[in-house]
Amino acid sequence: MTTSAPAAHLAQLNVATLRHPLDDPRMAPFVELLEPVNTAADSAQGFVWRLVEDGAADATALRPAGEDVIVNLTVWETQEALWDFTYRSGHLEVLRRRREWFERHVEAHLVLWWVPAGHLPTTGEALERLADLRAHGPSPRAFTFASPYTAAEAAQHLQAVPPTQPGPAARNAQSAPAEDAAAL
C-alpha cells in the first residue's frame, strides 16, 4: 500500500505601496471596494483563509512591510481557485485600477508557496517567502503564477534543501510560535 502526500494548500502574499494614506479622498474608491471584494473572496470556491486584523474586517491597518505598504495574505485550496478569484471575479476591477492607488513595484510583490492543509502562515513567514523570491527567483519554495510549482514539487524540493534563515525584516514581523513555520 502506498501512502499519499499530505494535503497542501496554496498560500499567497501580495504587497502594495500606497500612493496616498487610506483616509485620503483619492483612496476612497479602493476603500469602498474592500468590503465587497473581501466578501467575494470569503465565499469563493476554494477559499480557505485570509489575514485580518483583530477586531477589523481586513488587514489594511497591519503594516509588517512598512508604513506605506499594505499586505494581502490568503490561503486557497488550489492554485486554480486563487487564479479564478483573482482574474475571473469582481477582484479583476481592483487589479485594473491598481495604478490609481498603488505605486508600481520594481521587484516582485506577489509570492505563492505551498503549506500543509490547516497551516495558517504568519506575516513573517510570508515576508520571508517574498524575500526568497526576490533574492533567488522562482523555486518550489517561493513562486509566481507565471512560474508555478506543484505541491509535490515543493515537498520534494524542501526535503532536499533546508529552508533559509529569514532576514531581519521577516524575523521582526514574525508573530506566531515556531511550530507555525512548518510550511512546505
Keywords:
disordered C terminus; globular; 6 helices; 184 residues; alpha+beta
Written account of the structure:
By secondary structure, the chain is of the alpha+beta class. Helices cover 35% and strands 16% of the residues. It has helices spanning 28-42, 79-87, 91-101, 123-136, 151-160, 168-173, and strands at 8-17, 47-50, 69-76, 110-116. The protein has a 4-stranded antiparallel sheet with strand order 2-3-1-4. The radius of gyration is 16 Å and the shape is globular.
Helix content: 25-40%
- Calculate the mean pLDDT score and round it: 88
Number of strands: 4
Report Rg: 16 Å
Q: Give the oligomeric state of the chains in this entry, treating copies of one chain as homo and distinct chains as hetero.
A: single chain
Strand line-up in the sheet with most strands: 2-3-1-4
Given the structure, what is the number of helices? Answer: 6
* Unreliable segments of 5+ consecutive residues: 167-182
Tertiary shape? globular
Order of helices and strands: EHEEHHEHHH
Structural class call reads alpha+beta
Strand percent estimate: 15-25%
Distance between the termini: 24 Å
- Major sheet summary line: 4 strands, antiparallel
Q: What's the short story on this structure?
A:
With 184 residues, the chain is of the alpha+beta class. The protein has helices at residues 28-42, 79-87, 91-101, 123-136, 151-160, 168-173; strands spanning 8-17, 47-50, 69-76, 110-116.
Helices and strands, with pairings:
Elements: E1 8-17, H1 28-42, E2 47-50, E3 69-76, H2 79-87, H3 91-101, E4 110-116, H4 123-136, H5 151-160, H6 168-173
Antiparallel strand pairs: 1-3, 1-4, 2-3
